[in-house]
Amino acid sequence: MKILHIGKYYHPETGGIESVTRDISEYSAKKGYDVTVLCFASGDLPKNELINDVSVIRHPVVLNIFSQPINRSYFMWIIKFVRNFDVVHVHFPNIIALFALLFIPNAKKIIVHWHSDIIDKGILGFLITPIENLILRRCNLVITTSMEYASASKPLRKFRSKISVVPIGIKDPVNTSEIVKSYPVDKLLKKNSALPIHHKKIILAVGRLVNYKGFDVLIEAASSLPTDCAIIIVGTGPQKTALLDKITKNKLEDKVFLLGTVDAETLELLYRVSYIFCLPSTTRAEAFGVVLLEALSHGLPIVSTNITGSGVGWVNQHSKTGLTVPVNQPRALADAIIKLLENPSLHKKLGKHCRLRFISTFEHNLCNQRIVKLYEKLMRQY
């Protein structure tokens, strides 16, 4: 079977969808399938290369509009070469790919991996709706990461019979992380001695510094937290200056720390020494919350927001793996964090359930196996 993944970017470029694409592609290649990824390149990456038996074909970005990279050669490559593949696996949102799929033969087997709706794109979102409907009608299968998100997605409502739910999966760092083997916790602690992680209970948050992540709400909540804890936010983005100003304005320099981007070793350390993980996102732009899987895998209880129509509340189950609170409510966020800080038995129980939920639902081999079975079923049925 020859499988083509069509995405925006691919490893070594980073991002949630990019990580999912890489994981599925490499797993399929290990199973003996011929796997190709078509993507864009934002830097000076090779145009064609083989990465862990996955053939990667990149096209440079000529324009970038509303987070959509554009290049005519990418569009034309799909039309010209898609006939060479048995299964075309499209990772959405990707408007250029959707337009190109309108021109491929009807007999071609297409899977649309619906990671997220197009949200807050104004007139562009309105104009793309007819194309979404055409492709969803044309495709053989739609993969979503949770039924909660699929049920709330307006474009998917008419196509529920095509939907298969396959959650995102990640490797288990407790069992497989080479970082852990090479850098035990004591060595990592010594290497990162300047971090505010000694003699404090750490509330960890990870993500791009953008509006919908709700880090401003978490900073407001910090004012109500006890002095023996520290909030560490890992990530970078356009909101950095505004968040730093908020920290200064509220005199929280000794309690809230923006670390920016950190290396894999430091991030692993932070997951291992933190006491609580927090995801305070505020809109359905947070469709799933891949970082929640990292927390679950480390047995790290979670405080997250109850976003209507998002998969976040399904990943972090209230009173099982953590606590959920209403969006944009600093006081409620603080109260949930304090509840876990002051209740060690509850913290321990939730942490245990985190590991169990990760192993049973989100371990990457389980999820990737389900994807491959969908490929095989598609080939048998049509």
Architecture overview:
It is built from 16 helices and 16 strands. The protein has two domains: 2-169 and 364-381, 3-Layer(aba) Sandwich (Rossmann fold); 173-361, Glycogen Phosphorylase B (Rossmann fold). Helices cover 42% and strands 20% of the residues. The strands form three sheets. It has an eight-stranded mixed β-sheet. The chain is globular, with a radius of gyration of 21 Å. Helix 13 links the parallel strand 15 (302-305) and strand 16.
Mean pLDDT: 90
Biggest beta sheet summary:
8 strands, mixed
CATH topology of the largest domain: Rossmann fold
- Gap between N and C termini, in Å? 14 Å
The backbone outline, from C-alpha atoms, is: globular
Strands, count? 16
Short description:
By secondary structure, the chain is an alpha/beta fold. The chain has helices at 16-30, 72-81, 95-101, 123-138, 147-152, 173-176, 178-182, 185-191, 215-222, 240-249, 264-273, 290-297, 312-315, 330-342, 344-362, 364-381, and strands spanning 2-6, 34-41, 48-51, 54-60, 63-65, 68-70, 87-92, 109-114, 141-144, 163-165, 201-206, 229-234, 256-260, 276-279, 302-305, 322-325.
Secondary structure: elements and pairs:
Layout: E1 2-6, H1 16-30, E2 34-41, E3 48-51, E4 54-60, E5 63-65, E6 68-70, H2 72-81, E7 87-92, H3 95-101, E8 109-114, H4 123-138, E9 141-144, H5 147-152, E10 163-165, H6 173-176, H7 178-182, H8 185-191, E11 201-206, H9 215-222, E12 229-234, H10 240-249, E13 256-260, H11 264-273, E14 276-279, H12 290-297, E15 302-305, H13 312-315, E16 322-325, H14 330-342, H15 344-362, H16 364-381
Parallel strand pairs: 1-2, 1-7, 2-4, 7-8, 8-9, 9-10, 11-12, 11-14, 12-13, 14-15, 15-16
Antiparallel strand pairs: 3-4, 5-6
Helix pairs in contact: 1-16, 2-3, 3-4, 9-14, 12-15
